[in-house]
């Protein structure tokens, strides 16, 4: 007897999106980089994501991913939810990668600005950026796994606001066209 109920695909996508958003949001409040000079913490040598505009961008992406998760759960605007997850995840991941690359080059910035040899300067990526990257990747995965408009018959319907399909032999202009997931068309 299975005590744990099985989850449907849309529920898994929503959970993944919410987890990604939460991990990315938490990552913005944690350290993004640290700088040590000669083994001592440099004054102002660490920062969180919220100390710059990139943290706020990640937070906006987290909110967008949470909204998309709600849309997925409600099965409302599935294509919009998919696009929102892909955009939020893409922006979050890009911010994380840029931050990681920037943090690893801080030792050379200190050398140029203060004349301290980069051999004595240690710049490290903080846990916050790694969490932001993981959250962004989870949002991207949720967006990739989200389905388009699919009804209970397994048919992908033409969007209601799409222009009417060109008239083809055997089909009335006012009929509704749908395509099965296996590629077969149905008209009614």
Describe the structure.
The chain is an alpha+beta fold. It folds into 2 domains: about 10-150; about 150-188, no CATH class. The protein is about 50% helix and about 15% strand. The chain contains 5 helices and 6 strands; from the N terminus they run αββαααβαβββ. The strands form 2 sheets. The chain has a 3-stranded antiparallel sheet with strand order 2-1-3. Strands 4-5-6 form a 3-stranded antiparallel sheet, with no helix packed on it. α1 (about 10-30) packs antiparallel against α5 and α3 runs antiparallel to α5. The longest helix is centred in the middle third of the chain and has 27 residues, at about 80-105. It is elongated. The two termini are about 40 Å apart. The model is unreliable at about 150-165 (pLDDT under 50).
Query: Rounded to an integer, what's the Rg over CA atoms?
Result: 23 Å
Shape summary: elongated
The helix/strand series, from N terminus to C terminus, equals HEEHHHEHEEE
Structural class: alpha+beta
* Oligomeric status: single chain
Strand residues, percent: 15-25%
* Whole-number tally of structural domains: 2
CA distance, first residue to last residue: 42 Å
Q: What profile does the largest beta sheet have?
A: 3 strands, antiparallel
- Poorly predicted runs of 5 or more residues: 149-163
In percent, how helical is the residue content?
40-55%
Order the strands across the largest sheet as they lie in space.
2-1-3
Count of DSSP H/I helices:
5
- Beta strand count: 6
Task: Look at the structure and give the mean pLDDT.
Answer: 80
